[in-house]
Amino acid sequence: MDLGFSVASYFVLFLTLLFILNVLKSWNKNHVKNFPPGPRCLPLIGNLHLIDLKKPHLSYLEFSKKYGTVFSVQMGMKKMVVLTGYETVKDALVNYAEEFGERGMLKIFKKMDKGMGLTLSQGENWKTMRRFTITTLRDFGMGRSSLEEKVAEECTTVIKYFATFKGKPVDNTMILNAAVANIIVSILLGHRMDYNDPQFLRLLSLVNENVRLAGAPMVSLYNIFPFLGLFPGSHRTIVNNVMEQCEFITKTFVEHLKNLDENDQRSFIDAFLVRQKEEAGNPQSYFHNGNLTRVVRNLFSAGMETTSTTLRWGLLLMIKYPKIQEKVQLEISRVLGSAQPMYSHRGQMPFTNAVIHEIQRFSDIVPLNLAHETTKNVAFKGYFLPKGTYIIPLLSSVLRDQTQFEKPEDFYPNHFLDADGNFLKKEAFMPFSAGRRACAGETLAKMELFIFFTTLLQKFTFCSPPGVTDVDLSSVVGITHAPKKQMMCALPRF
Predict the structure, then answer these.
(1) Numbers of helices and strands, H then E, in the chain
(2) How many CB atoms lie within 10 A of CB 317?
(3) So what's the pLDDT on residue 328?
(4) What angle do CA 252, 257, 260 make, to 5 degrees?
(5) Is 187:151 a contact under the CB 8 Å cutoff?
(6) Element spanning 454, H or E
(7) Quick check: helix, strand or coil at residue 142?
(8) How confident is the model at residue 2, as a pLDDT?
(9) Per-residue model confidence as pLDDT tens digits over 381-434
(10) What is the pLDDT of residues 125-155, one digit of tens each?
């Protein structure tokens, strides 16, 4: 009995030593000469004990005060480099666009889209899908008056929705999600969806849940320690939600195939299917069903989430700062009267334009950005970054850069106005990122924000419900920086 216990003990000890040696071997591999500095690491967990997994960008901002604008952190056994401040982030993404141009892949991202699609793909697949996406979005009106009209029509539906409450408290989350989503849906599918359509509501719910879960601490731990995938958790919910989205998209493009007219392409899906037929004889073609479902999924999610979240922040900030809301409304009345706001009006409305830009800057929707990866060995800011280095270009540090914005922690529209009240463009205004991986739908998002925001303030004055004395500007945990759900009142102005 004693002998058996002894053999078992030695065996466990042997396995433990092998594990430690393997860890040390990996640790040595991670050591790169002239790599950016960072906080001291602990075995196995790296700097995990020093990082707030609910809001890691705040931890990185603190680290930058000690280690500079380029520093490293280690999550588990994986080293990554964080870039902070306008000058450094712009230098990397714009001046070293090729070197920093790859997408950094987390474990959950690989599970979600399997390297396909647009947002979470790499290499030639990404290049091909991005070229096709931008060209097709332009063909279907991005940046043109025809799409402005669709946004204006959707605004009419939103106005009617708010009006039904007759100034009583309402939660605007789902209506703004649906309204913004319908713009990209009209491009992807060729038609809008009804706000009460159960399938539409389900798709919106799946996107919202995934955005929230993707930034949750347990998913962060899964990205660091993939063996946690063996156990139930949020990572499985995310993958299941993606599968459900893809099933709906697949059914949709199968229906499009039945009535596909190559000479009358009515949607993004039609355009993709036509291209797929053209390349049917090419075994290396990227125009396959896997890419179609993922690109459509990416555009639907991205086209809805960030813009609707920005609008929600905008209305909350108008309630928080009623004098700013009043000043916007005065400009709207002076320039437009009761005419429908259009994107072309922004040049005549410098204060409203400045307020919208400040809402984007202050709300800091994607503080971590989506991660990048180096495509080759690169010397940057005096450091050596090997090919494949995981890069976090911290957008939060750009939008709150003290060298670029006078009052970075305050909501201050004058950041975007000169001394004469004219709109002032700021190079550090980077909510859509920059360089090769900048948001493909930036033009569409800017148009939507201006028309939706201006139309809402033209028709309503927003305020807190009776008895509520303050506005909660804290955020919920998620991959985006979203406000907590709050009731508000939309008081008709006319």
Answers:
(1) 16, 12
(2) 22
(3) 98
(4) 120
(5) no
(6) helix 442-459
(7) coil
(8) 46
(9) 999 999 999 999 999 999 999 999 999 999 999 999 999 999 999 999 999 999
(10) 999 999 999 999 998 888 777 889 999 999 9
Q: What is the DSSP letter of 93?
A: I
Beta-carbon contacts of 303 under 8 Å, excluding residues fewer than 6 positions away, are 180, 181, 183, 184, 441, 444, 445
CA–CA gap between residue 355 and residue 359 (Å, rounded): 6
Nearest 10 degrees: Cα torsion 358, 359, 362, 366: -120
Provide the 3-class DSSP secondary structure of residue 220.
Answer: helix
What pLDDT is attached to residue 142?
81
* Cα–Cα distance, 221 to 374 (Å, whole number): 23
Residues of the chain scoring pLDDT < 50: 1-5, 25-29
Please give the structure tokens belonging to residue 345: 């009006």
Burial of residue 127 (CB within 10 Å: 0-12, 13-18, 19+) is: middle
- Asked if residues 385 and 81 have their Cβ atoms less than 8 Å apart, the reply is yes
CB atoms within 10 A of CB 272: 25
Tallying the residues shown for the chain, one arrives at 494
Rg of the chain, C-alpha, whole Å: 25
> What is the separation of C-alpha 76 from the centre of its chain, rounded to a whole number of angstroms?
25
Query: Which of 177, 213, 221, 209 has the alpha carbon at shortest distance from 195?
Result: 177
pLDDT of residue 6: 56
- CA separation for the pair 463, 457 (Å, rounded): 11
Across 450-469, b (16+ Cβ under 10 Å) vs e yields bbbbbbbbbbbbbbbeeeee
Burial of 68: CB neighbours in 10 Å, binned 0-12, 13-18, 19+: middle
Instruction: Find out whether 218 and 234 touch, Cβ atoms under 8 Å.
Output: yes
Query: Any idea which residue has 């991959």 for tokens?
Result: 479
Contact 85, 397 (CB under 8 A): yes
